[in-house]
Amino acid sequence: MNALSSVQPIYPVPRVIVMAAIQVPAACSNSVRAQLRWDTYQLFERALLHSESTTDLRDRHVDRVDGLMTLIHVTDRFPKTWLLTRFAPRLRELLDERNEDQCDPLRLRIAIHAGDVACDDAGWFGEEIEIANRLLAAPALRTRLQQTPSPLVLVVSEQIHRSVVRHGYDGIDPQAFTPLIKLQVAGLECRGWVHVPGGPAGDFTGPQAR
Prior knowledge:
By secondary structure, the chain is of the alpha+beta class. It has helices spanning 30-50, 81-99, 127-137, 139-147, 158-163, and strands at residues 13-22, 62-63, 67-73, 108-120, 123-125, 152-157, 178-185, 188-195. Helix content is 31%, strand content 27%. It is globular. The termini are far apart.
């Protein structure tokens, strides 16, 4: 039998993609890595619940070794704006509280994107997940986290910026997002807009993406 004949049909389903990556200290032990991973999961979950993203509105967290991914269902019960006005600010607060007097501070990069994803027996995949992953891994975002004393930096995709941020919905300041990242995925240009939750509008010291 041809191996391809055993592949099950896949279907696109809409999700809001939220990814987190830990800034791992240089030469840290596995014990420190384990604690950072555990704390990331705990604080990430607490921030989601604070923003009313309950477990019935999302799929189970997906481990990413240096962080995690959560796929939130598209529903009127959870507007995308709440990720920016509730989730991100609360996560920043929790990180500040956790890091107080800690010798191994937890610092995170967060990416938010939305689109259709697919799933098979091995897990979630698709072009939109690749976009979120590459935004999260962008050197410019890593540099931005190094430049700020904040324990958290956030990047949103062009899709999220166009549909949510630029409209200035209640609690969102479009001027606080900087077009810092530009990349190519499947021949298409994708831009990432970077924000430091809890920082001043326009809090940025590096060059913008060209």
